[in-house]
Amino acid sequence: MFTYSLSGLEIKGSADTLQEVEENECTARSAVYQVLGQIFAPPGPDQAGKFRDGRWAKELSTGAELLPFEFAIDESAGNGDLSDPEYAAEWERLFGDDSADASPLRSGTHLPGTAVSEVQREYEYFGLATGGGDLPPDHLSTECEFMGFVCFKEASVTSDRLRASYRRAQADFLGRFLASWVPAMVATARSQSPAGPIEWALARLEHFVQADRAYLASLLGT
User: Fold this and answer.
1) How many angstroms separate the CA atoms of 166 and 216, rounded?
2) Has residue 171 been placed in a domain?
3) In a domain, 106, yes or no
4) How far is it, in rounded angstroms, from Cα 31 to Cα 34?
5) What is the CATH number of the domain that holds 177?
6) Among candidates 72, 50, 209, which has minimal Cα distance to 140?
7) Does a structural domain hold residue 2?
8) 3-state SS class at 10
9) Which of 44, 103, 137, 148 could form a disulfide with 33 if both were Cys (CB 3.0 to 4.6 A apart)?
10) What is the tens place of the pLDDT at every residue in 82-138?
11) pTM (2 decimals)?
């Protein structure tokens, strides 16, 4: 069974947890988005450690088991020997302050004219709100969490009409946001010769966003 959890986003007006659903291709996609969002969250006490002992790669591999498309994880390349301070310093060099308006990890930095309110409206339409003190709504981790949520919702409904609606919402969000700015962010970070673990994470992110968008396009005939 698969259970989705929220961290940066919250369900408005409800303290209920989301139900469990049988694992399938939608929960696999949800799981990978969740892990990617966690990897690109600001450095915390365990971020570097999960690269050092290969846990990030293992979490991606486990989540991706039922994916309906190929997703190369290369677990051995996901390891790294950066200490916690070294990892934090490398993160600062590449991405700076995640909450800053011009942070490379925020969609508004790469999509001129895109306001944070546009992303928030997407969340609000699906009954979600950003929690006080959490990452900005247009942060990479928040956008990945939203995609994971909508994938989970597709898996949890029994109506074909609702499943199709959630699927179209995923394709629309990828097209307007993640898939539109992640390639530029990855290219900019790569131009600065990132440390091995972060290069590995960037490659996984770029590959998955592109593969998932292509998968949705094939389902929707677009």
Assistant:
1) 11
2) yes
3) yes
4) 5
5) 1.10.3480.10
6) 209
7) no
8) strand
9) 148
10) 999 999 999 999 998 877 888 999 998 999 877 788 899 999 998 888 865 578 999
11) 0.93
